[in-house]
């Protein structure tokens, strides 16, 4: 029995009901969800009795329909009245709304949970059908997940802590439909480690393909939301990002990601030499101090420089930002010399978005990344190992900037 509402039917429903406001939309969704439940109840009693309504000639049972009992149930759309079909012999036991059950909101929770794990709306439609036997259209799935948009806005604008010793910034790219065209956009992700040593995703911004101008807006947003002090930013090698950070947080140190830098160098190196080239460069970023690192860099350049001159230019022009981590002790170096911490978040994003080659709009991408972020952050229950020692070292290095924030 097919009960899926098409897009055209939804549009007709909107026109017919004169929907003109958000509250009208909410009420219409409530009615649509009620229709879905009612359709399933009719399908259930049909299966129990073995014949369709009014199809008496195919009836092979002494049992028959016996009107309806009205029941008030609780859903995420609020309370609604459902007409529960009855049969004369009392054999009908609804599965979707059991006799004594009055809260059925878990169906919507299930839809949002499946969406957060990267399932397409059509896959969710099949999953809900298999689990509950309900026909939920792809459009209905989208509408249900749109209920989390206010939650996303609240999360994105929430006040932040006054100080983060370390903030990591990176972007991940997606294809999104925009005014009828498919364009490349970036999801700008900011992750912070607070004064207690706990990680958190501070925000996700969807914008034009990665640019220093957009990052400047992100940094100003962090400041507006309450961030006063950042000891060190860990970033990739985007041109102009250093200037953007200095404009908003002029006292902060900047560490460019060593792994990003190596990948950039590899573009100029023959595949047959990458393994050896990479092994040689470990002597740079694993050196004891900056002086040793520079000496090793010069030796590596002497070995490879004539063959691959472009592989070294970015190291030379950005040496100061690439070697900021050498001023810190080993415990802190392991945290900041690479943006691997944020790459781990990106891996989770890729898992849940791999089924989407193109997103219909920014909101669709926001919903999926926000739900994935909630799943990631929920697991971050432990603070960094040896954080007490790390904090003491930071207090020695930045006494004036840290003391007022230590409770």
TrEMBL record:
Keywords linked to the UniProt accession: DNA recombination, DNA-binding, Transposable element, Transposition
Q: Give the GO biological process terms.
A: DNA transposition
Kindly give the Pfam families that the UniProt entry links to this protein: Transposase_mut
Task: Reply yes or no: does the keyword Cell membrane apply.
Answer: no
**Matching PROSITE patterns:** TRANSPOSASE_MUTATOR (PS01007)
GO: which molecular function terms?
A: DNA binding; transposase activity
Summarize the protein's role.
Required for the transposition of the insertion element.
The family assignment reads:
Belongs to the transposase mutator family.
The identity of this protein, by name, is Mutator family transposase
